[in-house]
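hiii so um. not sure if this is the right channel but i have a protein structure encoded as tokens and i wanna go backwards to a sequence. like what aa goes where. can anyone help
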């Protein structure tokens, strides 16, 4: 178990590093956990990973909001979006048993392909921070997007960080750095709801989750620091890489069945 735990800690560090910048940490952490924790129920794997993830996400958010390079958040709209996402994540989780999750994969795959094409086509996409929504329109957009993406995260989940990033850039007009910071606040809300459920149902392996959480925090802090140092161009390229990885993963799962 010691060797497996060391490997899980390494994957948690890498997941936190990537997730802090553009989301997609689940691409690294979850498959590793499924392989390295054989015989553990999937729900327990998810609960254990959720504790690791929320620790890293919170650490990344703190890094984005502190120090001389602090990113200013539009707290009213992003906060409302986080509350709506957290509430609807719970609804999405409850809807899992009554709906077919497999029907969602082709829709998400198509959306990710469109996101990648649009980002490649618009060379200036996410390079400038120019919020285009204000007042009630901004709050309404935050509420609706938070509800939709929160429900998706509770119901299905993969690609949530990248979808949030694209929404903050494409709809709100943020640059990639401000979008990354804002996405972390929403991610904390949705992860908190999921973690509360797994803790209440005793589906967390704390002796695995806590070391992973420490490493996820270290990776997330380093990732957020690198994003702030390297700027929007670097984050844009990494965003395309992660979206491309999600497209390959979902494409394989969709068409191999």
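sure thing!! here u go:
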């Amino acid at each position: 178990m010691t060797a497996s735990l060391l490997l899980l800690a390494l994957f948690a560090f890498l997941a936190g590093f990537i997730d802090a910048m553009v989301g997609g940490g689940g691409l690294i952490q979850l498959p590793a956990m499924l392989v390295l924790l054989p015989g553990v129920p999937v729900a327990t794997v998810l609960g254990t990973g959720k504790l690791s993830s929320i620790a890293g996400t919170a650490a990344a958010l703190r890094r984005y909001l502190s120090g001389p390079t602090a990113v200013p958040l539009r707290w009213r709209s992003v906060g409302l979006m986080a509350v709506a996402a957290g509430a609807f994540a719970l609804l999405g989780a409850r809807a899992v048993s009554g709906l077919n999750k497999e029907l969602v994969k082709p829709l998400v795959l198509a959306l990710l392909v469109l996101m990648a094409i649009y980002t490649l086509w618009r060379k200036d996409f996410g390079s400038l921070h120019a919020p285009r929504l204000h007042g009630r329109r901004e709050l309404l957009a935050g509420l609706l997007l938070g509800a939709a993406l929160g429900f998706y995260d509770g119901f299905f989940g993969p690609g949530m960080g990248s979808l949030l990033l694209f929404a903050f850039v494409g709809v709100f007009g943020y640059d990639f750095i401000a979008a990354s910071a804002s996405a972390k606040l929403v991610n904390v809300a949705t992860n908190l709801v999921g973690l509360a459920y797994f803790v209440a149902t005793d589906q967390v392996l704390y002796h695995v989750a806590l070391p992973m959480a420490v490493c996820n925090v270290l990776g997330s802090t380093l990732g957020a620091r690198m994003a702030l140092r390297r700027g929007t161009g670097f984050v844009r390229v990494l965003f395309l890489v992660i979206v491309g990885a999600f497209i390959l993963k979902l494409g394989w799962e969709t068409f191999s069945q």
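oh and The chain has ten helices and no strands.
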